[in-house]
Design brief:
The protein is α/β, with parallel strands linked by helices. 40% of the residues lie in helices and 30% in strands. Strand 2, helix 1 and strand 3 form a beta-alpha-beta unit. Helix 1 runs parallel beside helix 2 and helix 2 runs parallel beside helix 5. The longest helix has 18 residues.
């Protein structure tokens, strides 16, 4: 009988205008990735948006198990199919960026990607694609 685990790793997702702001926290396992993917898909479907940006804030992320990394890498093409036109990413260090390299390579195949140094830089860059980056009132 297969062993199932509780999700490890937390996330927060919310819309900033036309940008899906994803915040990653802690160390992730496969179960956390599956829960995250379901929430992202539900949020995008519920938004009704056909053109949007993705902001991945990885500054509190601590890593992932190999199977979690693979599952997220495999999911990454979905972003473009669902309407994402640009991807801004924030990492706390070069080491953490390197840990996510397989995901980063896959996301880069789906549209423009920019590694940003600050939230302001990320939002400014996403506005260059005609995306509204304001929080809803």
């Amino acid at each position: 009988m297969p062993v199932t685990y509780h999700p490890h790793g937390k996330y927060r997702l919310h819309w900033r205008g036309d940008v899906l702001h994803l915040e990653f926290h802690g160390t992730w396992n496969l179960e956390a990735v599956h829960a995250f993917i379901a929430d992202v898909q539900r949020s995008v479907a519920g938004s009704g948006k056909t053109r949007w940006g993705r902001l991945a804030d990885m500054r509190r992320w601590k890593g992932a198990t190999p199977d979690a990394t693979q599952a997220y890498t495999d999911f990454s093409p979905w972003y473009a199919a669902a309407g994402a036109v640009a991807h801004a990413q924030l990492y706390p260090s070069k080491l953490m960026q390197t840990m996510a390299e397989s995901v980063n390579r896959q996301v880069a195949l789906t549209g423009p990607v920019r590694l940003c140094k600050s939230l302001d830089e990320a939002l400014c860059w996403l506005r260059e694609f005609g995306l509204d980056t304001e929080n809803p009132a």
